[in-house]
Specification:
The chain is of the alpha+beta class. It has 3 helices and 13 strands, in the order E-E-H-H-H-E-E-E-E-E-E-E-E-E-E-E.
Length: about 210
């Protein structure tokens, strides 16, 4: 078997590189015919069966341990992010939205606590801002930074300035697109300049993990 290919046992797919070797004999064990007959006798006790049972228990613990700490799917991006967003960066790029309305792409990065850079922001038919929200209880909270007013179309490597430095050393912030709705070029949120929504109705916002140094 080529390493890394998936092999199936029934309906369960396992990776040759991800399954500890202790699990294989535990999954493959079946009692031999002699043991099968002996099982019917009162007081039957199989040394090999008990050993296999103990091995199986260890295998289960290995599977649980192997699953702990793995990332969870990041909604809206299809990329994997850390289970604990403040535990440190797994440097990934995330994107959301569509290029027919509004689109945002960000990447985890180090920062001096004064600015971050957003890879790409697209506004269709309107100008707008990239706004940074704090991380509060699994979602986004108050605004702590924003970009200059961006023109319609695609803007790349957008610098967003913090109005207050995020807490470190690791932090999660939420870049979000806001549209200009008051025609005065000033950022008037929450009285105006609302969040941008893509064609599917979702607010164009993503988590970004930063290292504050």
């Amino acid at each position: 078997m080529i390493p890394g290919r998936l092999r199936r046992r029934g309906s369960v797919a396992t990776s040759a590189r991800s399954v500890p070797s202790v699990i294989v004999p535990a999954l493959a064990w079946r009692p031999d015919p002699a043991e099968t007959l002996a099982m019917r006798e009162p007081g039957w006790r199989s040394e090999s069966g008990e050993a296999r049972f103990r091995l199986g228990a260890v295998a289960c613990l290995c599977l649980v341990a192997a699953g702990c700490g793995r990332g969870t799917a990041d909604p809206g991006s299809g990329h994997t992010v850390a289970a604990d967003p403040d535990a440190g960066p797994e440097r990934v790029t995330r994107e959301i939205g569509d290029r027919g309305t509004f689109y945002l792409r960000v990447a985890d990065q180090p920062t001096d606590g004064r600015t971050v850079v957003v890879d790409e922001a697209l506004f269709t038919g309107t100008s707008g801002w990239v706004v940074i929200h704090t991380h509060v209880r699994g979602g986004y909270g108050p605004i702590i930074g924003r970009s200059e007013l961006l023109p319609p179309g695609t803007s790349r490597n957008v610098t967003v300035t913090f109005s207050e430095p995020p807490a470190g050393p690791w932090a999660t912030v939420y870049p979000m697109l806001h549209v200009e709705s008051t025609a005065n070029t000033a950022f008037d949120y929450p009285d105006g300049d609302p969040e941008a929504s893509s064609a599917d109705g979702n607010v164009v916002v993503l988590p970004m993990r930063i290292e504050v140094g």
